[in-house]
Amino acid sequence: MYSKIYRITCKPGQSDAMLAHYDAEVVPEIKASELHIGHQMAQTAPEEWALISNYVSESAAIEAQQMVQDIIAPMVEKFGIKLELVTQGDVIRNF
Question: Which residues in the chain come in under a pLDDT of 50?
Fold first, then answer.
């Protein structure tokens, strides 16, 4: 398993709408993806989250880049989100 950890922010006052969009649009895409294992999201501040994207492998993470960009593009326009890659690497513990 390979993980990418992102910092996500959105425009003030847009968090509820952004999360509703995420649940309705992003979650089904990730669940249907053969490249993804899943996502975890933690709210770290108002309008700020840490997102852990788990992939089958590093090559799957690379292959999924265009898909992720396509999913995120409408969210940038609608909610002003910024997706910043904090770090990434092979998962060495999973329990």
Answer: none
3-state secondary structure of 74: helix
Sequence-ordered alpha helix ranges (H) in 2-84: 15-21, 27-32, 58-63, 65-79
Q: For tokens 């490249």, name the residue.
A: 35
- Number of domains observed in the structure of the chain: 1
- The CATH number linked to 31 is 3.30.70.100
Cβ(75)–Cβ(28) below 8 Å: no
Assessment of whether the complete model's pTM goes beyond 0.85: yes
Tokens representing 61 are: 């993470």
Q: Angle CA(33)–CA(45)–CA(31) in degrees, nearest 5?
A: 10
Q: Is 9 exposed, middle or buried (0-12, 13-18, 19+ CB in 10 A)?
A: buried
